[in-house]
Design goal:
By secondary structure, the protein is of the alpha/beta class. It folds into two domains: 108 residues, no CATH class; 133 residues, UDP N-Acetylglucosamine Acyltransferase, domain 1 (3 Solenoid). It is 39% helix and 15% strand. It contains six helices and 14 strands. InterPro entries: Trimer_LpxA-like_sf (IPR011004). Keywords: Membrane, Transmembrane, Transmembrane helix.
């Protein structure tokens, strides 16, 4: 089923992808349907195979107490090495803050973005649990994000577009919370830099999409922001699209703290 805008709302808006060459379309489908689906999994299997060969060469027969620990270190080294090589190095080469802000559907920017996300979020994921630990902020910084102090989140990949995201101090993101800085509008992939202010709370299942969040703002469970609907400092927002909760929309304790200290 195809969904189209009403003629009264279209206003000259493009109703399909921009025209692209046969080569561009072929590369788009080959990259997303072959490389991202099969190539990464093959490389992942080769990494496991190399770890097995290296461990067998190091310890053909286990005769000492320390040898099982040495084998464990070999597998950990290959897992961390492959994650760093493909998710961090390759991912940052393919997709970073220098990406064009507006990209045609069949452009290489779209395939590079999707390939980077496939590596980081589906195939070469971090081999240990970082969510909720002090490791998460440094890892997000490796992926290109600017993350402040005392960041706490229960999701591994909370930032969909890390290179375009800036997170302040004392930010908390609950389970399934997310921050997104891209949109597909008029068959174009668009990126914009957005900032999550100090002391912001994103509750369970809430998503800050294509907007800024002021200091001390709270997005309640299951809520979703729309593009450009910035969260005001100290406000409490709820709904889809999120709107200021008039009953609970006053300044939060976090936003009141500086004024209380002055008194």
């Amino acid at each position: 089923m195809k969904f189209r805008r009403l003629s009264s709302q279209a206003g000259g808006t493009r109703q399909g992808p921009e025209r692209a060459s046969c080569l561009a379309r072929m590369w788009h489908h080959f990259s997303t349907s072959v490389m991202d689906v099969f190539l990464y999994r093959g490389v992942q299997g080769m990494t496991t195979g190399l770890a097995l060969l290296s461990s067998r060469r190091l310890c053909p027969v286990i005769t000492e107490v320390w040898e099982p620990f040495a084998l464990l270190l070999v597998y950990m080294a290959y897992a961390l090495g492959s994650w760093y090589l493909f998710s961090v190095v390759l991912g940052n080469l393919l997709f970073n803050g220098a990406a064009p802000r507006s990209n045609a559907y069949y452009s290489t920017a779209v395939t590079r973005w999707f390939t980077a996300l496939t590596a980081q979020q589906r195939v070469f994921k971090l081999p240990f649990q970082a969510a909720g630990s002090r490791w998460q902020a440094p890892i997000l910084r490796l992926l290109g994000a600017r993350v402040g102090k005392r960041f706490f989140c229960m999701n591994e990949m909370v930032l969909v577009d890390a290179p375009f995201t800036e997170v302040g101090d004392d930010v908390t993101v609950d389970y399934d919370g997310q921050v997104r800085c891209h949109s597909f509008e008029d068959f174009r992939l668009k990126f914009t830099h957005f900032k999550i202010g100090h002391g912001v709370t994103i509750m369970t299942g809430a998503s800050v999409a294509m907007c800024d969040a002021g200091d001390g703002a709270t997005l309640r469970p299951g809520s979703l922001t729309w593009k450009g609907s910035n969260l005001e400092p100290g406000g409490i927002y709820e709904g889809a699209p999120a709107a200021l909760d008039l009953e609970r929309g006053g300044p939060t304790l976090l936003s009141k703290a500086p004024s209380m200290e002055k008194k």
